[in-house]
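README, section 4: Worked example with a bound small molecule

Sections 1 through 3 covered apo chains. Here we extend the same pipeline to holo records, where the ligand is supplied as SMILES alongside the sequence. The molecule in this example is pyridoxal-5'-phosphate. Nothing else about the input changes; the structure line simply encodes the ligand pose together with the chain.
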Amino acid sequence: MILPLFEKYPTLEKRLPWTSLANWPTPVQKLENLSNAVGYPNIWIKHDDKSSEFYGGNKVRKLEFLLADAQKKGFKWIVTYGGIGTNHGLATTIHAGRLGIKTALVLIRQPLTDHVQENLLLDRHFGAEIHYASSTLVGGFQTAGIYLRHGMVYFVPPGGSSTLGSLGYVNAALELKKQVDAGLLPEPEYIFCALGSKGTMAGLLLGTKLAGMKTKVVGVRVAELWITKPENIFRLANCMVALLRKYDRSVPALKFTMEDVHVTHDFFGGEYGRVTPAGKAAMALMRETEKIKLELTYTAKTVAGMLDFVQRHPELKNSPVLYWHTYNAVDFTNVLLEDHDYTKLPETVQWCFQENLVPCLGAEEDSAGEK
Ligand SMILES: Cc1ncc(COP(=O)(O)O)c(C=O)c1O
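The generated complex, written as structure tokens:
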């Protein structure tokens, strides 16, 4: 299989590290039932949840570049960061493990949900070395310890959103364009994606432009503003342009500015990982209408943001809107049934199974001053 990015710019194939970890292209589908339920007849989905039978979701596209780079340079260990329920950490652990590379995770606190607990159990099950950082300082010491213990360690930034990793989503947009050209879906007026470590959104921003699409990419912010600053989104897109042009001068010298960045801030909920009523409602609606599984940190908030947008903008006149599904669809119920003894986890994270899970918020708490 040849990546659409390499098909468009063949020189890049020899110059950029990339290894195949998944099944491309991911399917696109019209969400008929959801469209009917909300009275907006043109909602589509890009199923990145189905990218891999090992662990799907958006991280796989980034890891195909990052792990290839680590492998090429001979690294046997990776260190990466996230909240205690990080999907990125789990995806990295699983896919790096497939290549014989081990993963050390440095994790920080986030609101406790059953999803957080499940991911911690799965991290251990798939062989991650787990470190809990109760503060930035502790995280720094732990990182230093990881480097001392394992020697050469490949650094993967939170969410995998380095310039190299984010190219996965430049390619993803070119993949979508091929599906549009093949008549599988109309060119979307808007794409909605979760905005966390920014790589997904920045990659789509650049990829849609390279593909010659008029589509606007809207990021639904799910993390604190210092992580998701709009100026850093277009800067990341510009860094990717520079990287691509370093290897292939036929890549156009695009320059992104604030005007290209569309972010919705209203569904964040005030804290990374906080459960919001709007997110819960979107998660339930998606499950009831389409049997599609969302999670509450990223994808439920994104769907909530998209549905609110189409309902508040009658001038859209039912033009096509695409939800880019970035969560994983592989079901780990059986793994968790067999391997759920939390006392096998490092003592520093066992409190995650001893404290109460977060209570559901009341509707009035959802909208109050949380930007
Ligand atoms: C399910 C899911 N969706 C979306 C995102 C956000 O993507 P990005 O970090 O590229 O902004 C993440 C990041 O971890 C995720 O786990």
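What to look for in the output: The pocket of pyridoxal-5'-phosphate is lined by residues 57-58, 87-88, 159, 161, 194-201, 298-299, 326-327 (CB under 6 Å). The beta strands are 28-30, 43-47, 77-83, 102-108, 129-132, 153-155, 190-195, 216-221, 262-264, 321-325.

Section 5 describes how to batch many such records.
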